Amino acid sequence: MGGVFIRRIIFDLIAVFAIISLYLWVEPPIFIVAQLPPFPDEVKIVAKPGVSSFDVSIVRRAVCLTTRLLEDNYSLALGHDIEIILVPDAFSYSVTLQQDENLSRDVSLFQGSHSFGTTNNNHIIINVGGIAGYNDTLFVTAHELTHQYQIAEAGQWNRLNWLMEGMADMVAAQVVNENTVTHGENEVNKYRFSWLTALRSSHDKPNLKKLDSKHDWLLDFQNNGAVTYRTAGLAVLNLADSRESASFRTYMNALRDGVDAEQAFQSAFGVSCSAYNQQYEDWLANNL
Ligand SMILES: [Zn+2]
């Protein structure tokens, strides 16, 4: 009798174990990020009427994660107060850029129809209502916030604009990865793959030399759209693969000290600009 009872219990335990295993196999456990890093004192979020509290919460999350990443991994400091102004649609985005930020009408209209985020002095303006997905809101916020850290560490820059834009996209991809619990998959690699795919379908051959000054950058963006960003993002991901994260601060601080951009690049990354351009073109030729 006792033997039958014990066999029964063992049988039940095996059944329960099998059901739990099946559940975990079908639906692996999703861990909530236990502790979000603190929200920085220097950042203030201003939501215009029509912006949802959900969008505000995603932006807050992006700010916390980006701040931690840039300060802990890249040793950067923000060191100045910034305001993040959230608007609900493309129209209010353009109006805000023109009326509140005093950007020209042309620039405001262009940004309104070609972008979701703009950095203007110590302000970041984001059209959160126009961004389709959760990760895209994280991405745009992280990208623009990285520009604020770059301004803090480098001052204003004009040369090697691809390096600053590519870095902002790389950090944004890393922030999405920090926020995403996947099972052994790295979100940054997914971005790397999709950026490469975007370049593959581009008819214009990507080239870093065409993305040097801010003027060059804008011109290329007007002609090629997202390909401009993908070219820079991949170039910086590749560069960062074999460098210390602190190299980016070394580069930016050299700019702040008045060092020429190419010299700053050489001393921070251990390769001349033209040699790196060539390396990247060779890599693209093998991978496109
Ligand atoms: Zn940017």
User: Which structural class should the secondary elements be placed in?
Assistant: alpha/beta
Helix content: 55-70%
Regions with pLDDT < 50 over 5+ consecutive residues? Answer: 26-32
Output the CATH class name of the largest domain. Answer: Mainly Alpha
When the domains are counted, the total is 3
- The 3D shape can be described as globular
- Ligands, deduplicated: zinc ion
Mean pLDDT: 90
Total count of strands: 4
- CATH fold node name of the largest domain: Neutral Protease, domain 2
Q: How much of the sequence is in beta strands?
A: 5-15%
Helix-strand string: HEHEHHEEHHHHHHHH
Can you give a write-up of this model?
The structure is a single chain. The protein is of the alpha/beta class. The protein folds into three domains: 1-30; 40-154, Collagenase ColT, N-terminal domain (Glutaredoxin, 3-Layer(aba) Sandwich); 155-288, Neutral Protease, domain 2 (Orthogonal Bundle). It has twelve helices and four strands, in the order αβαβααββαααααααα. The chain has a four-stranded mixed sheet with strand order 1-2-4-3. Helix 2 (53-73) links the parallel strand 1 and strand 2 (82-87). Helix 2 packs across helix 6, helix 5 (134-154) packs across helix 6 (161-179) and helix 10 (246-256) runs antiparallel to helix 11 (261-269). The structure holds zinc ion (ZN). The site of zinc ion has 4 residues, from helix 5 and helix 6.
